[in-house]
């Protein structure tokens, strides 16, 4: 595995924002991942694991560390009876489609989420009120403190709404995921269901301009008390406002789009402005779902900055 230098991060996240990573690699095996960690330790620099960068904001000044991208190069998967066993870099919509081809159901809700399965498990993502955690049997992880490989069963993963042990513990790299699916007789209806989901998403969400999906976390409690973040932002009259090159989407207020030349500061300032306005005017606490990667390699919830 080659460790590259001075790689633009714009090509590795959906906002297309970010300076250069001092070092960058794409492991193809566990041995490569261990080599990458050993390299970072030897150079006294931080390492940051990423998937498709669909939930990340890189600083426009880049990252003075090693980016370990667990993506296409680490994305094998296979079916065993009603189980899907996949490497962390596997592409989620592909897994959903392949499962239905195999007459196995359970991942249809993820068809429109443009990410790796490792990234999805990390935040227990999903859609249509479902979470990937519901289908997880076990997750194989590398503990970066002692370089041991361990198995976490579903209950060990502490899955909660858009949360898991992987968000809390920074020393676990997800390597392999075992997903339990339900056998179905015919895949036709499930294919139609997935097409419907995709159609619905493309009608609701901005598709053309770079964005990172939902910016603020929606939770059942927030939803019950005040509604979805998009509706809250719209009620505040903030739909369509912009700072620099970052704009609240006119199509869906919980999306921020990069109009072409947005910097990380533009996005951060816009997110903080929305959160501050919601707090001051409606006493609502909005929490950013997207994580910011600082030049020092720290991963920070943007509303905590
Ligand atoms: C257009 C669009 C629509 C979206 N819709 C949805 C949606 O409907 N539902 C939803 O839940 N999300 C949605 N998202 C957000 C995003 O896709 C998810 O948060 C996804 O889980 C992030 O995966 P990723 O591979 O892109 O990870 P990244 O964004 O690269 O990383 C996210 C976090 O996961 C960690 N991580 C990634 N891989 C690993 C690994 N192997 N081991 C340990 N940690 C790892 C990273 O360190 C980082 O902290 C959407 C995003 C976009 C751009």
UniProtKB/TrEMBL annotation:
Family matches, as NCBIfam families: murB
Protein name: UDP-N-acetylenolpyruvoylglucosamine reductase
Gene coding for it: murB
UniProt GO molecular function: FAD binding; UDP-N-acetylmuramate dehydrogenase activity
Record's subcellular location: Cytoplasm
Family, per entry: Belongs to the MurB family.
Keyword Cytoplasm: yes
Native organism: Flammeovirga aprica JL-4
Reactions catalysed according to its record: UDP-N-acetyl-alpha-D-muramate + NADP(+) = UDP-N-acetyl-3-O-(1-carboxyvinyl)-alpha-D-glucosamine + NADPH + H(+)
């Amino acid at each position: 595995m080659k460790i590259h230098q001075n790689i633009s991060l714009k090509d590795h996240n959906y906002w297309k924002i970010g300076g250069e990573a001092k070092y960058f690699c794409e492991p193809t095996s566990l041995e490569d991942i261990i080599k990458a960690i050993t390299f970072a330790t030897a150079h006294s620099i931080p390492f940051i694991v990423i998937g498709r960068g669909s939930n990340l904001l890189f600083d426009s000044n880049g990252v003075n560390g090693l980016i370990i991208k667990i993506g296409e190069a680490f994305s094998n998967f296979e079916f065993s009876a009603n189980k899907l066993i996949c490497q962390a870099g596997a592409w989620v919509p592909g897994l959903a489609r392949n499962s239905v081809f195999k007459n196995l159901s359970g991942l249809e809700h993820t068809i429109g989420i443009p990410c790796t399965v490792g990234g999805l498990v990390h935040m227990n993502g999903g859609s249509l009120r479902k979470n990937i955690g519901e289908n997880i049997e076990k997750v194989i992880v590398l503990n970066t403190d002692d370089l041991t490989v361990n198995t976490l069963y579903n209950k060990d993963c502490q899955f909660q709404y858009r949360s898991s042990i992987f968000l809390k513990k920074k020393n676990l790299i997800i390597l392999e995921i075992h997903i339990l699916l339900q056998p179905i007789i015919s895949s036709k209806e499930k294919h139609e269901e997935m097409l419907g989901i995709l159609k619905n998403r493309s009608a609701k969400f901005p598709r053309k301009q770079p964005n990172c999906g939902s910016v603020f976390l929606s939770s059942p409690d927030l939803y019950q008390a005040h509604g979805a973040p998009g509706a809250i932002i719209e009620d505040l009259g903030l739909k369509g406002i912009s700072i620099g090159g970052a704009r609240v989407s006119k199509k869906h207020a919980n999306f921020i789009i990069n109009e072409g030349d947005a910097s990380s500061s533009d996005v951060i300032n816009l997110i903080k402005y929305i959160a501050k306005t919601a707090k001051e005017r409606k006493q609502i606490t909005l929490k950013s779902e997207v994580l910011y990667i600082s030049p020092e390699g720290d991963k920070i919830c943007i509303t905590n900055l």
